[in-house]
Amino acid sequence: MKKPFNLLLACFCLLYLASCDKDVVETNAGYQALQPAQTDADAGTWTPLIVSSAADFSVPAPEPAASAAYQQELKELKALTANLTADQVRVIDYWKVGSVLRWNEIMRELVAKHNLPPYQNPDNTYPVPSAANPFAYPVFPFSNPPYAARAYAYVSAAQYDALVMAHHFKNEYKRAAPYQVDASIKTAVPKSDLAAYPSEDAVVAGASLEMMKLLFPADIAYLTKMAEEEKNYRLWSGANVRSDVAAGDSLGRWIARKVIQRAKSDGMGASVGTPELWTKLEDDCNARGETPWMSLETPKRPPMLPFFGNVKPLLFDREDVPALRPGPPPSATSEQMRKELDEVLSYTLHPTRERMRIVNFWADGVGTSTPPGHWNAIATEEFVKKQYSEVRWARNYALLNVALMDAAILCWNTKFYYFNARPCQLDPKIKTLTGVPNFPAYVSGHSTFSGAAAAVLGHLVPERANAFQAMAQEASDSRLYGGIHYRADCEEGLKAGKRVGDYAIARARTDGAD
């Protein structure tokens, strides 16, 4: 990294620290109120991702509609909905487009906020974010692509499992919505035929809050505020009584704790490694007669999560990863590598307007929601068109994001297994058009993420399958055009990602929702 860029990065860091206490900006993005084309009332029979069964959760039966307690709740609801303030209307308008959609947006915004590599210490070492002291510099987390992929996956899995369990209890207790019990209650959101207890929004709010407190501990105040707003919106809009919300919130938090148990034992804590282990990766590459990757920043930055490839996947066993890993890249001294280097050099010396558009559109670097977040944004725009139920929104995001997490695991396992050099390291004439990521080249992360995402989205929205494949190809090509990957990195990355996506598709075909 050149010194002027170090100064620029320092400025970014100062701006970032100055903005840490600011809320993420809320937007409505032109979305309409959620009114599902089908309710998916049978979702209580769908297969969860992580939790085992409803027997693990003690959700008590609600009070009967004729009880004094429930009648008092209806009375409270009428008072709450009678004279809404402008701020309450704003909250209703924000959340009524869909709970799962909104939390996905919040996730992407927080990932972007925290996607900033730490600046160096005066002694030319780099500080490491600490979850034990999340407000100290560098603020925890550094939400780089592997961290982000895992975060999206666990939040989505918790939301999906929570909604499946919520549907189970809805079908068990069959409590009618308050506006069905008392026709005088006016609602500010579309009505639903689903049972009201426990509240879908509240179960998602509870699960999301607990998961994101773990993943983004410096933002707990903001996350708590959003969860409280969401639960209140169900009351202010006349959609749920307080006991519906309380039951959903408790159930969501219970589900999240189960998911957190899994997350805390998946091996993420060992993904950074030690200097001795980093050296061994380099020595192993040298022993194979290849040119090892090295950080091209000044001072040299430690590799990004070099042992993330050992994290426990969600779709297959950890022991399956070596079999899924692509074969070796072209040798650094081979004629094939020379051809690939010449191709990269040609692209960087002769950029076109269209290729630069592709490079910039798919860059997804510092300060963005990362490649997994980009694919979540693409998915959101497609899902909105389908008028999905909350539980189907959650299921679809879960399939996408567990595939993206496992794609990150396979990709990082491959990168640090082969530890091969970037094109500009082998040929100094290559000047990249979009920075140089701080990890080995083979295989391309963008390509692996995109191969997985396109496969899953093509299954979920089959009429758009060709369009998703074209997007994945463009995302992959962007890394070749930008001079940071060889053709082999991109082609093998797409194939590896598709292999992971196929696991998610196999699960989708047997989870009871297709």
From TrEMBL:
The UniProt keywords, alphabetically, are:
Signal
Query: Where is each Phosphatidic acid phosphatase type 2/haloperoxidase domain found?
Result: 399-495
Residues making up the signal peptide according to the UniProt record = 1-18
SUPFAM superfamilies on file: Acid phosphatase/Vanadium-dependent haloperoxidase (SSF48317)
Tell whether Nucleus is among the UniProt keywords: no
Record-linked PANTHER family: PEROXIDASE-RELATED, PHOSPHATIDIC ACID PHOSPHATASE TYPE 2_HALOPEROXIDASE DOMAIN-CONTAINING PROTEIN
The protein's name is Phosphatase PAP2 family protein
